[in-house]
TrEMBL record:
It comes from Myripristis murdjan. Belongs to the calycin superfamily. Lipocalin family. This is Apolipoprotein D. Keywords: Disulfide bond, Glycoprotein, Lipid-binding, Pyrrolidone carboxylic acid, Secreted, Signal, Transport. One of its GO terms (biological process) is brain development. SUPFAM superfamilies: Lipocalins.
Length: 179
């Protein structure tokens, strides 16, 4: 079972994106023929689930390979005019490469499933952590290579979640101003 400290570390970099639901995690479809090398680089949060405890803006995730050849992600956000960074290691599921696992320190990995991406503009990302199958913590992000997306592209990303029976009614726009 995940310790409360590890759960907090896994939730913090999710910026403003968490929802509590009863029962086990769903199993949505992920991007077919996913290529991590094409996915690497900087992604900006466009919309996510709200978290009233989080007041960050300018949220981004930069996926890269470190000097040792390991995949890592650096989450950056601004909280109270202070830039915060958290680094995690990235592991891919061998059978389903779009199912990424992000680890921070000595905590259990957090799932980051790429449900859909065109690699150059938009990505629909889903995370779910089940707690003893009684309830689950769910996170949803629409991410972009730029700090904004046209509304029709955001709507197309929302449709990806909806086709997987994932509720997007609570998504809110991210604050990417003044970054």
């Amino acid at each position: 079972m995940m310790s409360p400290a590890c759960l907090l570390l896994l939730v913090l970099p999710l910026a403003s994106a968490i929802n509590f639901n009863w029962g086990p995690c769903p199993s949505p479809s992920v991007q077919a023929n996913f290529t991590f090398q094409r996915f690497m680089g900087k992604w900006y949060e466009i919309e996510s689930l709200p978290n009233p405890l989080e007041t960050s803006q300018c949220v981004e995730a930069n996926f890269l390979v470190d000097v040792y050849g390991k995949a890592v992600v650096i989450f950056t956000s601004t909280v109270d005019n202070r830039v915060e960074k958290i680094e995690g290691s990235v592991h891919q599921d061998i059978g389903e490469p779009a199912k990424l696992q992000i680890s921070h320190y000595y905590c259990e990995p957090s799932p980051w499933w790429v449900l859909a991406t065109d690699y150059t503009n938009v990505a629909a990302i889903y995370s779910c952590t089940s707690i003893l199958n009684y309830f689950h913590l769910e996170s949803i992000w629409i991410a972009s290579r730029t700090r904004s997306l046209p509304p029709e592209v955001v709507q197309e990303a929302k449709m990806v979640f909806q086709r997987n029976n994932i509720d997007v009614s609570k998504l809110v726009p991210a604050d990417q101003t003044g970054c």
